[in-house]
Protein 1
Amino acid sequence: MRTTRDTLRRLERAAVASWPAPETADIDGWLWRYASGGSLRANSVAALAFTGSDPQRAIDDAARRYHARGAVARFTLTCVSEPADLDARLAARGYARGEEHVTMLKRIAASPGNSPNVACAQAYDSHWLAVYLAGLGPGRAAAAPAILARLPPRRMFFACRRGAAVIGCGLSVVDGELASVQCMATRSDARRQGCARAVLRAIEAWAAGEGATHLYLQAELGNVGAIALYRGGGFSLASRYHVRSERP
């Protein structure tokens, strides 16, 4: 898959759909998202299309909606955000630029292999949730169940087990030829023992069976360990993005 602008647009749209905020609104083609705290993705405007004529008014509209909920306004900025000068407009209004994130992409192998210690299910259980939430801050942990409850139907939860205990987890959502890698977490006492790689293999095998041709994921560029894991698993950089946040 060549990383053309059309490909990047499809990647970003798939990422938005794979982590649905409980509350959304259309603002001239932008998707305003709110999840009562936590996840940046679910609490920022996805600016992947703009059909209006006045971006400044649309920014004001988005900000008013966040202020009404006691939140600061945030926008996720990618290389395919619209209008093209949105990042500059937000910077001029004093919106602070957040940490750099990356979108990574991998072609699914013809024979992904298997992961006998990884179980998959359409719904998560309390053990999966406990491993996932353990690595999140209080805001993200509180908001996560409401987002998980709204996932698209073509999804699968993955649990890496050691005996009866869940020691690692992951999630994938299929959107056409694209399948996500999300909610990757490993219990602190089980890290660097191959659990994450096993979950990645299981996700790849499931996605191949669902007809997907590529895996994608999004991560903080500063998370050196995670980026190394994904590069070692065959993922390469597709694009970068960041969040602009209104100063309180």
Note: The chain has a mean pLDDT of 95.
Protein 2
Amino acid sequence: MKIEKSFELKHPREQVWGKLNDVRFVAECLPGASIVSDLGENRYKGRMSVKVGPMVAVFNGEIAIDSRKQDWTGVVSGKGADSGSSSRASGSMTYVLADGTSPAATHVNIVSDINLAGPLAQFSKGAIVQDIANRITAAFVTNFESRLAELSPAGEANVAPSPQEEPLDAGGLLWAVLRARLRTFFRGLFGRSSAGS
């Protein structure tokens, strides 16, 4: 499953680059994610918790980062498994930074390629996943912006980071997406009925 996203951050490219390459900082901005240990050579042990209804899947695995500042490009790759549901996940995320609409802004392009196997694979199909990806990206951008805003000019956080202990609620996201789609469907249906009468 390939997902492409782009967004703009209200911070200079140098600062955004530094923090996107700080795997612990990124994990603090992504719901359900945490870094367990540093394996060296830009490799880490990580954990991602995903809640789907009453089930909570905890993916434990490895993450690697390969960044090339000469073209402002980075690739994060990883794989993990949840022992409870026997689900497995692997994938990569490529990000490219470009100048934003102002000197103090950065445009970010992201292409993710994600593969799921096991019971959770049923959630990797269809356009609904794109909507869920939009919501996860929006949450990440909001958290990333907020954490960057906490940084002093010296680059040290004024507020202590709060790790994302709550699992990513995929079931809640799915329900929110379905509700929004149903509202749009009925609004369009009744709008057409009114226009036809």
Note: The beta strands are 2-9, 33-40, 43-52, 55-68, 73-82, 87-99, 106-117, 168-169.
Protein 3
Amino acid sequence: MESLEQIKARIEQAVPGAILEIIPNGSPGNPESLRVDAEHALAVACFLKDDAPLRLDYASNVTGVDWPDKVVQQTVKARKVIDGVEKEFDSTIEVRQAGFLEAVYHLYSMELKHGPLVLRMRTVNRIDQTHLPSLTPLYRSADFQEREIYDLYGIIFDGHPDLRRLLMWEGFEDFPMRKDYVESDDYEFEPTAHNQVLEKARRHYPPKVSNG
């Protein structure tokens, strides 16, 4: 398979306006990934699937990632008058960066026996702009995996044929795989509570009434 740089260059020619970025991976043995903007993601995925040298026709794994808000320190230039002389110096400020959610697709070619190409999409934020295009119309194997990401992370996949919860029940209002998720301790849904779960559940049992 071509290098990711070569694939990126050919995509940019084939899909005008697509915003692509190669994301390095610091872990040994793990490939770099290609991030694509949500607006052009479906067109880029079509290219990857139909392009003769690539034929990336199978999505083996689709995962979600939560990137919460974070505060980073930045160094900026500042000016200050000291003893009547204006001087420039470095100042450190804290800047809050909005978090986002990601969907990560591992694409292989069953026909040409190569891959993976790791394709990433990210939402605008984690609050009210959590939409991404579904790739299920192209990759049927993404169906349940996108549903799982929707269920556990809250990404809304536009164009998915049957987007509903997969593991949690309808009406559940949170996303258990987000890093700021606070686990309930009542476990009223656990029919056979035991060990640590039982200890938490007991806190919510009604007090025993003495017959004496």
Note: The longest helix spans residues 4-14.
Protein 4
Amino acid sequence: MNTLVIDLETIPIEAYTWGLWEVNIPINMIKEPGQVICFASKWLGNKYTSFTRGPDMIEEAWKLLDKADAVIHYNGKKFDVPHLNTEFLLAGLDIPSPYKQIDLCNVMKKQFKFPSNKLQYVSTALGLPGKVDTGGFELWKGVMANDEKAWAKMEKYNVQDVRVTEQLYTRLGSWIPNLPSRQLYDEIEGCPSCGSAHLQRRGYSYTKVSKFVKYQCVNCGGYFRSTRREAGVTLTEAL
């Protein structure tokens, strides 16, 4: 299964405004609409993390998403993917091949109750390295001015976000619900989440009409049930 970890950075909308507080800006006062300026990614489990900027960036991002079976990101359903889709449309590209989205921000919100769901907070709370300190908006101003020192720091920041996202994915493990099944993609017999063959039987799993063997993966801790029905009632018996 081709699983891609992504993170992108954007520059803000530039607009004319008559004030700073409670301002509604009409579209004819937009100077520049903002855009994706760089994109970092790595294939899950690989050592290399790529960083892309420049005129070919959007096409490169499209190729990666088109190859991916699943994409891991943090708040990517609301931010990264819609931004990329907008850039693809503007560039005249077709929709990439369908992929599953694993948004770790949504996992943190649904499964836990941390004081903050920001990536910096949850990653460091779990003992992970955390994000690179940007120093604030001055970094984005430097990048927009095409300052190479600013770009070097932006690359470090963007790449680290991808690495921390991958580390958080590994740390969460079986806490992540509804992961794509590796059994289907990789044609293996083992844990559908991580692919490990190190399994233990843990009794049975029951639906309203069926009984299945329940397993726990020793590697990731996740639970799943066999596909073979052990026992149950049939519709004719129920009638």
Note: Residues 46 and 64 are 14 Å apart (CA to CA).
